Structures are given as structure tokens and as C-alpha cells.
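ok new one. same drill as before - C-alpha cells go in, u give me an amino acid for every spot. 134 of them this time. try not to just spam alanines like last time pls lmao
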């Protein structure tokens, strides 16, 4: 499921009251989530990408986070970024994997094992490209 838009409302007498002037897209599928407290503000894609790039530089190497997508991962709203191999004077290659950033807290949810998988994938690809050029 990809989250396309988010609207805030209040339940009154079993009905959802949205802010005045709110117009929902006709014939769209909606899901209702009941929050027990005021939700944290949603992290914007630019800041989430900076966090993803910081993680890639720290744990993987010459990679860049691209193609942001707001999606669900294990019942969490996350920003998903493709991890692309970045080399000077070469188009970005990938994705070699994905980086997931919590859409509210901003923490990167990837594990060290996922970093190793991205490195292995990139190493295999670069070796195959090098042997093809020979």
C-alpha cells in the first residue's frame, strides 16, 4: 500500500469530521487509523533522503538514495529510497537495494546485514562490468 495523501479529522457521533473545505478524491480507497494521541509531524522527503544518504555513506560507501516513495513496512509508515551506486563520470547504477527511513521519527531502519548485501551486489556488478569491458 502506498500512501497518496493524508487527511486529519475527528470522530463525532460515529462520523469523521474533516477540516472545512477538505475535498477527498472521488472513488479513492481510504483506510481509517485511530490515533491515541497527537501524531508526530511527517518527515518530509528531502530530510528523509539526507538521513538515508548519511546511512549509506556511513555503512555502505559510494551510494546515493534516490526515488523517494512513502509506503508501509511492517505496519510503519516509511520513506523508501532506492540505493544507487554513485561513481564519478558514470550514470548512477541500481538500485542495489533499498533504504527505509521512519516517516515520523526519522531513524533509518536498515540493518548491517542489509548494508553488506548492498556492498556484495555492487561488487558483483562492478566486477561483471569490468570483465565485459576487457
Amino acid at each position: 500500500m502506498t500512501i497518496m495523501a493524508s487527511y486529519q479529522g475527528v470522530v463525532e457521533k460515529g462520523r469523521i469530521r474533516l477540516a472545512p473545505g477538505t475535498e477527498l478524491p472521488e472513488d479513492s480507497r481510504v483506510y481509517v487509523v485511530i490515533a491515541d494521541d497527537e501524531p508526530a509531524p511527517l518527515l518530509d522527503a528531502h530530510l528523509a533522503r539526507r538521513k538515508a544518504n548519511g546511512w549509506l555513506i556511513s555503512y555502505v560507501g559510494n551510494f546515493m538514495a534516490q526515488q523517494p516513495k512513502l509506503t508501509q513496512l511492517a505496519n510503519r509508515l516509511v520513506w523508501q529510497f532506492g540505493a544507487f551506486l554513485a561513481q564519478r563520470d558514470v550514470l548512477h547504477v541500481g538500485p542495489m537495494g533499498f533504504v527505509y527511513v521512519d516517516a515520523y521519527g526519522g531513524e533509518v531502519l536498515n540493518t548491517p546485514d542489509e548494508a553488506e548485501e548492498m556492498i556484495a551486489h555492487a561488487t558483483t556488478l562492478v566486477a561483471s562490468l569490468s570483465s565485459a569491458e576487457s
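The two ends are 44 Å apart (CA to CA). and btw Residues 112-133 form the longest helix (22 residues).
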